[in-house]
Amino acid sequence: MEYSEWFEIYNWIRKLLGISYEKDVEATLILAQILKGLKPPLNELSRLIKRRKIIVFGAGPSLDPVLEDIIKYTDTDLLHRKYTLFAADGVTQALLEYNIVPHLVTTDLDGDIEALMWAAKKGSLMLIHGHGDNIDKITSIVPIIKKITSKIIGTTQVKPIPPLQNFGGFTDGDRAVFISHHFKASKIIMVGMDFGSIVGRRSKPWLKNNEKAWPAKKIKLDIAFKLISQLACKEKILIYTVSDTVPQCVKKVSVKEIHLL
Ligand SMILES: Nc1ncnc2c1ncn2[C@@H]1O[C@H](COP(=O)(O)OP(=O)(O)OP(=O)(O)O)[C@@H](O)[C@H]1O
Ligand SMILES: Nc1nc2c(c(=O)[nH]1)N=C(CO)CN2
Ligand SMILES: [Mg+2]
Residue limits of the 6-hydroxymethylpterin diphosphokinase MptE-like domain (predicted)? Predict the structure, then answer.
């Protein structure tokens, strides 16, 4: 997506959530400074996505039960070989419990940090997002991840400055879908991308159970739903979901059907 096209969407989101452009720019400068000197592994990102089937895991309430179901039909080694596994932030904790190392992780560093460190150690490529409301986490956590791995790509939602990138997308989950589209995935299969008004417990380390979405979170889930609908309809790409809430132009499939895709 052209930056000008994204910038219009970003401004729409900014108004909805009252986001500060200046703080987003500040976060971008700080993240770029911390990652300076690290060459973003874009070739590896492309190799993991281009012409491959991607499973994007979101942190909705259906994540854990569906993951259990998937593992019933496909053993975890096969899953790892057949698909590129793309975890949205806190989902990494669930994958850790099944010992499934995601190939890719999108995070704005508000998921379970231990799980993110585990993924970094195991070789996941970490797409770390900087925005105006996670500057404290950027400065405290990114230097630690940098000591563990060089497989880091910094992302931003404003104009990128090297070595950062902007592939479009807003929340960790829809950003994973946008990145998969940008690098020309053959198919994108969404698991746990439930949207709606219940936040899955994997979303935040402090959640013990699934919980009713607080007002800002509800707006973010609606934004994610809309962005994926727009992308699926406009770009005519093949996006599937196993969740009951189905964005426009996305096809609903059952867990059993995943391996037929
Ligand atoms: N019902 C849901 N509950 C939680 N996450 C969901 C749900 N449906 C889809 N998702 C996706 O899973 C991702 C999980 O990431 P995470 O919980 O870290 O959210 P986030 O993008 O950081 O947003 P926030 O800033 O509100 O925490 C979300 O970005 C969202 O796109
Ligand atoms: N400034 C700002 N940007 C964001 C925020 C947020 O809370 N503040 N949350 C996001 C969800 O992943 C993505 N981007
Ligand atoms: Mg997050």
Answer: 33-196
Closest protein CA for atom 8 of ligand 1? 195
Distance CA 154, CA 183 (A): 16
Residue 204 phi, psi dihedral angles, 5° rounding: -135, 140
Phi, psi of 110 (to 5 degrees): -110, 15
Summarised one tens digit per residue, pLDDT across range 171-228 is 999 999 999 999 999 999 999 999 999 999 999 999 999 999 999 999 999 999 999 9
Nearest-atom number in ligand 2 for the CA of 157 is 14
Ligand 1 neighbours, Cβ below 6 Å, are 58-60, 88-90, 108, 110-111, 171-174, 193-196, 198-200, 203, 217, 220-221, 224
Task: Dihedral sign for Cα 101, 258, 111, 95, please.
Answer: negative
Range of the domain at 114: 3-260
Strand order in the sheet with 125-130: 152-156, 125-130, 104-107, 84-88, 53-57, 187-191, 239-241, 251-252
Strands 84-88 and 104-107: parallel
Q: What number of residues does the chain have?
A: 261
The SS3 assignment for 165 reads: strand
ipTM, interface predicted TM-score of the complex: 0.98
Question: What are the phi and psi torsion angles at 99 (to 5°)?
Answer: 55, 40
Dist. CA 147 → ligand 1 center (Å): 27
Rounded distance from Cα 186 to ligand 2 centre (Å): 28
Tokens of 42: 């874009």
Distance CA 128, CA 126 (A): 6
**94-119 pLDDT tens trace:** 999 999 999 999 999 998 999 999 99
Residue 112 Cα to ligand 3 midpoint, Å, equals 9
